[in-house]
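batch job 7 of whatever, protein = SAM-dependent methyltransferase
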Amino acid sequence: MQVIGSGPFKEGDRVQLTDSKGKMYSFYLSKGSQWHSHKGWINHDSIIGVSEGTTLLSSSETQYQVMRPLLNDYLLSMPRGATIIYPKDSAVIVGYADIFPGAKVLEAGAGSGGLSISLLRAIGPNGQLTSYEARDEFLENAKGNVKNYFGDLPTTWKLIHGRVEEASFNGQFDRVIFDMLAPWDCLESAFQA
């Protein structure tokens, strides 16, 4: 799993520009490219090599602060299919479920991938998240959002197209998270997991 960067920005990093009104724009840096808005453009090359917090001017003299997107900002701005679990709620879920580094977690209902991202960050590089999603369009959306956030699909994540209540388990999980319409239909799966 790629660790979200620190230090000066480099090609391939995700960057967030914030204008004086607090409007945020997020994209990946690519040498020779430009970012455009109705308030002018900024060369990616002028962002590569600067530190977080630097203020840059667009071609129309609009000021933008350059930062790495926070998890909260990414989750609220990512493409959605299913209703997302908001960052304030995912923090409570991770805390109350005691999701720890190295945990093996079963998630049912990957949805748009927001909770999956929070779980993947919590389990770290030595954990394992197995997520089930029954709907094709949600599965693809979750996959895209997770890949977009981490820069690639984490090796600690297994995304399965299917219904968790149709799967069988043998006690291989430390924690179980159900984000679905009728979690009570899956209690047998939770006991097996």
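notes: The chain is about 25% helix and 25% strand.
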